[in-house]
Amino acid sequence: MHTWKQFDRNVITHSAAHHLMAIDTLMHEHGYARVSDVARLLEITRGSVSISLKPLKAEGLVEQDENRFIRLSERGQRLVDILRARHYIIKKFMTAVLGVGEERAEIDGCKIEHLLSAETSERLTALLRFIDSGAESADRFIEEFHRFNEACLHDAQACPSCQDQCLYDLASQKLQDAVAEK
Amino acid sequence: MKQPVSCTQTELVDELNRMLAEEVEASLRYMHLMMVIHPQEERIMTLLNEAYDETIEHAQMVGERIREVGGLPRLDIRLGLPGEPIPPREALAQVLTFEEAALEGYQELLDRVRKAGGDAEMIEFLSKQVELETEHVEMFRNLLNDE
To answer: I want to staple A109 with a disulfide (CB 3.0 to 4.6 A). Which of A33, A91, B97, B138 is the partner?
Structure first.
């Protein structure tokens, strides 16, 4: 199957991840969660929340009591912990290593957290451990990287990383601008 | 100590707009279900069609209420529906799920307006909506049990 089609068959969809994390947030903040609270937090209708919770309940990730209070099952909680950890890893990689701003890192982390494989998460964690180790080579790596990053000559032919076109030019262009371009 | 329940005009307009979104979204779900269940399911098709009409009517009523209390109706819905056939039982289960959500929404708003000492007309309107939604829920629950 093509990789892009696999996104639709992901174990946890983007929407499901947000529903689970919303329940977790509400439980931490108020000690309880109801469909209406999740709807308010995610700024969607109660109907949408109820429909989205159905497969999560069937999967045993979310439980609802007779008073209609909802909570995460043990497996649901584990899943949220994994998602939050991945979000943290991605965000930290983006800010500490790549130098992306907090706000952008938060948004991009949110988009990727549920799609990242365990293998990539593990390697990213290893990289972060190296960065946080305090080793002189780690600090130097970050410094050198940030210095090097600024020095793109935008010459694809002379660049060992580029292909036909300058990768930096393509990577830095916003998709919506590319769509709007005439 | 219990917190006093507030329901300012802005809060009421916000809550009614949420109910407007529930109703319009439900109408789109009904329309979608009518398209994806088998046309031979005549009885369910008729019920879905009636429920669709009622939901549109409810949306218009909620919109009117919003204007009456000095607000403006706004529609904030994000809805993506899959284009796959749905078995009748699954369709009814979906209907029951979003009808129960609407009932819960009206019930919560009614309780809040009552506790905040809201005006009698609004209480009467919301009570009527609770009554109607309760009927919907009961009807679809019975249908689902019969399937």
So the answer is: A91
Q: Rounded CA gap, B36 and A156, in Å?
A: 51
- Please, which residues bridge with residue A121 across strands? none
The pLDDT tens digits of the residues spanning A89-147 come to 999 999 999 999 999 999 999 988 888 889 999 999 999 999 999 899 999 999 888 88
Contact between A114 and A149 (Cβ < 8 Å): no
pLDDT, tens digit (0-9, with 9 covering 90-100), for A159-178: 888 888 888 888 888 877 77
Contact criterion met (CB < 8 Å) for B108 and A48: no
CA gap A19, A22 in Å, rounded: 5
Per-residue pLDDT reduced to its tens digit, B59-99:
999 999 999 999 999 998 888 888 888 998 999 999 999 99
Tell me, yes or no, if B58 comes closer than 8 A to chain A by beta carbon: no
How many pairs of residues across A and B have Cβ atoms under 8 Å apart? 43
CA–CA distance, B23 with B19 (Å, rounded to integer): 6
List domains and CATH numbers for chain B.
9-146 (1.20.1260.10)
The owner of tokens 């629950």 is B141
Beta bridge partners, A62, equal A72
Residue A72 and residue A62: Cα distance in Å, rounded?
5
Contact (Cβ atoms closer than 8 angstroms) between residue B48 and residue B34: yes
Q: Is ipTM beyond 0.90?
A: no
Confidence (pTM): 0.81
Locate A61 and state its tokens: 């990730």
For an interface test with A, give the residue of B3, B97, B108, B109 to mutate (most A CBs within 10 A). B97
